[in-house]
Specification:
The complex is a heterodimer. Chain A is an alpha/beta fold. Chain A contains ten helices and eleven strands. In chain A, the strands form two sheets. A six-stranded mixed beta sheet of chain A has the order 2-3-1-4-11-5. In chain A, strands 8-7-9-6-10 form a five-stranded mixed beta sheet. The two termini of chain A are 34 Å apart. By secondary structure, chain B is α+β, with helices and mostly antiparallel strands. The radius of gyration of chain B is 20 Å and the shape is globular. Chain B contains ten helices and eleven strands. The chains are: A alpha/beta, B alpha+beta. The interface between A and B is medium-sized, with 23 and 24 residues.
Chain lengths: 216, 322
């Protein structure tokens, strides 16, 4: 990699699955052969611009440190990590709710009434903020995946997790009891790269917005 | 949870020599413009802020010098009935790092232009901008970008709408992220939401040359900010004809860094590819009145530690030393 290669950090997983087809046919389309391989640095249709495929939770660090100049990440991750980076646009796709979910039949009032409420989540910051707004206290059980299992197996009374279609919740007999916030994909930029090389970064940022927001 | 280990910058031969050389070049530059050196003590025994490195000397809580402007302001306000008009400094400051990669000890060179209350400020602001414009050439930077901003562009509309505290902080944080959608979210339901969101959109217009100022005309606060716009326009007209060949001048209407401190025009120097600004400053007219002196002031600081890092990681950005 030369210092002139510009890196864009794309998320793996749910957001990445939505993102890759939207980029097809644009100057930032990802090389199909490289995508099928296990490499994590993928050439794009624009020479000198490559994509890094990263886990959402790691992506903001790469951008904040200036390793990647631009990136796409869910606002839920941004809110949890609070990194120093620029958030140039709400791209609209990947929309989901951050919700409090419990087993069917358990109401929000019942959860409120518990003397010792336990909530499992991988979003502790957003959960703490909601608890403060609601004047509630709870024990937070940190989890990094498969939070839906926690209420079923008695690890927690409820979970705070992202809900898109509700299919996973339904499959586990869970229902949403409160919506804490909403999340969608955001275009982020490294502060230094964006402010020191605007002529290089702004056209690419505009191209990403056109490719990703235009298809709403 | 982030892991933080303190980063203490030990400088070996060529980097140490470069630091000494750059300090000398910049202090000569300031002296040539009438700025006289002051050197506030490394050890502070006055009000000790949280970000400073603190320790006990016997029973006394002391701190290492954490900011030259603050240290100088205290010294000047205590010592002089009338302000010395031009002051320069060079040395190290010590701060607890906010980001894990930040050094505890940071080398800086800077200058302060201090005036009695009522003396016209625009000329002093342009004087400082002209001096900063010469810095990239003096240090051998092949190219650089100077951003002109103005803290009042955000501060005055917020004050006019009676927005203070957490809500104002949220708006400023959203502007700092250059995220107009976050500004709208933060102001949702506020009576001034439409006006302030439109203002944010205007401030976040693409940064460019003098034409960027036209974006202010689309703001609902265009009338309120007429003076600031005229001030920036005058500054641009003074500076553009004398712009060095390898320096680009840009207007950054949404510069909100240090908004709690700066009150007017701001300056930030970048090099293409640098991850952090290399010099920063601006007008800060509330500091001396807070110390009991009716003086107004502006200044800038060249962050030599960042320049040293940049010279180490991106030597291609610098001319070969003569």
């Amino acid at each position: 990699m030369t210092p002139q290669t510009l890196l864009i950090a794309f998320p793996k997983g749910r957001l990445g699955d939505e993102l890759v087809p939207k980029l097809a046919g644009t100057p930032l389309a990802l090389d199909a052969a490289a995508l099928k391989s296990r490499v994590l640095r993928i050439p794009t249709a624009t020479p000198g611009v490559a994509a890094l495929l990263l886990k959402g939770a790691d992506l903001p660090r790469y951008v904040a440190a200036g390793v990647a100049s631009l990136g796409i990440v869910g606002s839920d991750t941004l809110d949890e990590m609070d990194m120093d980076l620029l958030e140039l646009a709400d791209l609209g796709f990947g929309a989901c709710r951050l919700s409090l979910c419990a087993q069917a039949g358990v109401t929000l009032d019942q959860l409120r009434a518990k003397p010792h409420l336990r909530l499992a989540t991988k979003f502790p910051k957003a959960t703490e903020a909601w608890l403060a707004r609601e004047d509630l206290t709870a024990e937070l059980v940190p989890l990094s995946s498969s939070a839906e299992l926690a209420p079923l197996l008695g690890l927690a009374d409820a979970i705070v997790d992202l809900v898109q279609t509700g299919g996973t919740l339904k499959a586990h007999g869970l229902v949403e009891t409160a919506v804490l916030g909403r999340s969608s994909a955001r275009l982020v930029a490294a502060r230094g790269a964006y402010l020191s090389e605007p002529g290089r970064l702004q056209p690419l940022a505009a191209a990403l917005v056109a490719a990703l927001k235009g298809g709403d | 949870m982030a892991v933080r280990t303190p980063h203490f910058p030990d400088l070996f031969f060529s980097a140490a020599a470069r630091l000494r050389r750059w300090e000398g070049i910049l202090m000569e530059h300031f002296a040539a413009h009438g700025y006289r050196e002051m050197h506030p003590s490394l050890v502070l025994r006055e009000a000790v802020p949280e970000g400073a490195l603190r320790f006990f000397d016997g029973e006394d809580l002391v701190a290492l010098r954490w900011d030259f402007t603050m240290a100088l302001a205290g010294l000047l306000a205590r010592t002089f009935p009338a302000p010395p008009d031009r002051v320069a400094y060079a040395g190290a400051v010590f701060r607890r790092p906010v980001q894990p990669w930040e050094a505890v000890e940071r080398f800086e060179v800077g200058c302060e232009r201090i005036q009695p209350e009522g003396e016209p400020a625009p000329e002093a602001d342009v004087e400082l901008a002209r001096m900063l414009m010469a810095v990239p050439g003096l240090l051998g930077l092949k190219s650089a970008i100077l951003h002109l901003g103005n803290a009042a562009l955000v501060r005055r509309p917020l004050e006019a709408e009676g927005l203070f505290g957490e809500l104002a902080d949220s708006v400023v944080a959203a502007l700092s992220r250059r995220a107009p959608h976050r500004v709208r979210e933060a102001l949702d339901g506020h009576p001034a939401a439409t006006r302030l969101s439109a203002h944010a959109e205007a401030l976040l217009s693409v940064m460019d040359g003098p034409g960027t100022l036209d974006a202010l005309a689309t703001s609902p606060y265009a009338t309120l900010l007429e003076e600031e716009r005229a001030h920036m326009d005058r500054a641009l007209r003074s500076l553009l004809p004398i712009l060095p060949p390898n320096l680009e001048l840009r207007v950054d209407l949404a510069d909100v860094a240090g908004l709690g401190f700066y009150t007017g025009p701001t300056l930030r120097l970048w090099a293409p590819g640098a991850q952090q600004e290399l010099a920063a400053g601006g007008r800060y007219d509330r500091l001396f009145p807070g110390l009991g002196r009716p003086w107004q002031a502006a200044g800038f600081c060249v962050r030599l530690s960042r320049l040293l890092d940049l010279a180490g990681t991106r030597p291609d950005l610098f001319e070969e030393p003569r």
